[in-house]
Amino acid sequence: MSWGFLRDLLSGVNKYSTGIGRIWVAIVFMFRLLVYVAAAENIWKYEHDEFECNIKQPGCENVCFDHFFPVSHIRLWALQLIIVSTPSLLVVFHVAYRENREKHNQKPYRNPGKIDGGLLCTYLISLILKTGFEIVFLVLFYKLYNGFKIPRLVKCDIRPCPNTVDCYISKPTEKMIFLYFLLATSCLCIILNLSELSYLIFKHSTKCYLKKYMKKQQ
Amino acid sequence: MDWGTLQDVLGGVNKHSTSIGKIWLTVLFIFRIMILVVAAERVWGDEQQDFVCNTLQPGCRNVCYDHFFPISHIRLWALQLIFVSTPALLVAMHVAYTKHEKKRRMRHGEKIDIEELKNVRFHIRGPLWWTYTSSIFCRLVFEAIFMYVFYYMYDGYQMPRLVKCNAWPCPNTVDCFVSRPTEKTTFTIFMLAVSGICMMLNLAELCYLVLKVCMREPRKTT
């Protein structure tokens, strides 16, 4: 069980997506998932071991690390990737439901895979949820770490540290570069989701309006 | 989830590439991705643990390491490989869009064989030619940008054995020793050489595509 599951899930959803949805999937794969697995994970691998405080007092380093990093950036990043991809499951379930109903001939659909009617609502809800989760995680990052900066040095005075102690974070510049990368790709994904939402709403409103207009004409 | 997914995506594009494109893909996988995963990652694996400074001052090593290696070679190569492979997605999307259009025409009555559609190989002409050429151009630009970034960040392509550091909290100028500098220099030069080969292959492919179009035009007019 690994990221391969997420990859299969997103590939499955790709079939029922719009063009913008497919671009979103490609960006999540290439610039978020692949970068996470191939590069970012290793930067944070030894973050606790390499976190060094200018003190010999046992326990001080542990306590300071825990205070400044309640949840590690890399774990938040992984959670974000999982939670942001999950709303796509709603669409998968709805399509499976439609296909099941078609099979039992209860209500034949013109095109089970096409985004219309109930599936459109599900798709729009999944888009809104995806965008919402992205924003929540970005706000969480910002609140937990006072912005997207990682300092080289933090000053810590929690017991058992005897006084204010200097603690040094490992690879702060590299971590900051990848955090900005995460921020940029998240924002890009939010923009894509909002564009797709607007496009779908506009397309179906025009279709409904034209239908009503044709009916009036008749 | 790892480089295997990239392999699947690029493998799909391979069907519609020119012969030079196929050679480029082979070079990318064997001499860059595989070398990165199998060898280079091990060489850089212990880079901070074995970065040793001639001081007992806590924090000095962290700060000096961060100062001299703002972003590690191995991460820059991973990013380079991802960015250089991404333009191929444009071609994959264009091909998928063309197949989708054909399927749509089939649904509206035009007779098209489904099996043939699955295995069809699109020739690089018309709009696909523009997409393909743009993707090669983007690849070239990304390769050049990354090679420049490497050169600018590390003052060349050689890894020094010793760096002198006087960033706070190091008390004075302190000697810091990089781990495995020769091995790292060897791999850096190797990756640089393979990047160069990939750039030449891309340039050759670009020239070939342009020539192909130029030679087709006079034949059309005559």
TrEMBL record, chain A:
Spell out the SMART domains in the cross-references.
CNX, Connexin_CCC
Q: Where is the Connexin cysteine-rich domain?
A: 133-200
Upper classification of the source organism reads:
Eukaryota, Metazoa, Chordata, Craniata, Vertebrata
Q: Where are the transmembrane segments?
A: 21-39, 77-97, 118-142, 177-202
Q: Where in the cell is it found?
A: Cell junction, Gap junction; Cell membrane
Specify the protein name.
Answer: Gap junction protein
* GO function terms (MF aspect): gap junction channel activity
What is its membrane topology? Multi-pass membrane protein
Alphabetical list of InterPro entries matching this protein = Connexin (IPR000500), Connexin_CCC (IPR019570), Connexin_CS (IPR017990), Connexin_N (IPR013092), Connexin_N_sf (IPR038359)
UniProt organism field? Xiphorhynchus elegans (elegant woodcreeper)
Q: What's the encoding gene here?
A: Gjb7
The answer, when asked if ATP-binding is one of the entry's keywords, is: no
| GO BP annotations, alphabetical order | cell-cell signaling
Q: Which UniProt keywords apply?
A: Cell junction, Cell membrane, Gap junction, Membrane, Transmembrane, Transmembrane helix
TrEMBL record, chain B:
> By what name is this protein known?
Gap junction protein
Write out the similarity annotation.
Belongs to the connexin family.
Q: Where is the Connexin N-terminal domain?
A: 42-75
Where is each Connexin cysteine-rich domain found?
142-209
Question: What sections of the sequence does the record tag as coiled-coil?
Answer: none
Q: One GO MF term, please?
A: gap junction channel activity
Q: What is this protein's function per UniProt?
A: One gap junction consists of a cluster of closely packed pairs of transmembrane channels, the connexons, through which materials of low MW diffuse from one cell to a neighboring cell.
Q: What is its main location?
A: other
Q: Name one Pfam family in it.
A: Connexin
Natural source organism: Xiphorhynchus elegans
The answer to whether UniProt assigns keyword Cell membrane to this entry is yes
* Bilayer-spanning residue ranges: 23-40, 77-97, 128-154, 187-211
Q: Where in the cell is it found?
A: Cell junction, Gap junction; Cell membrane
Say yes or no: keyword Transcription regulation present: no
Q: Which GO terms describe its biological process?
A: cell-cell signaling; gap junction-mediated intercellular transport; sensory perception of sound
> Subunit arrangement?
A connexon is composed of a hexamer of connexins.
List keywords of the entry alphabetically.
Cell junction, Cell membrane, Gap junction, Hearing, Membrane, Transmembrane, Transmembrane helix
Membrane topology term reads:
Multi-pass membrane protein
Upper lineage: Eukaryota, Metazoa, Chordata, Craniata, Vertebrata
The UniProt entry's GO CC annotations, sorted and at most eight, read: connexin complex
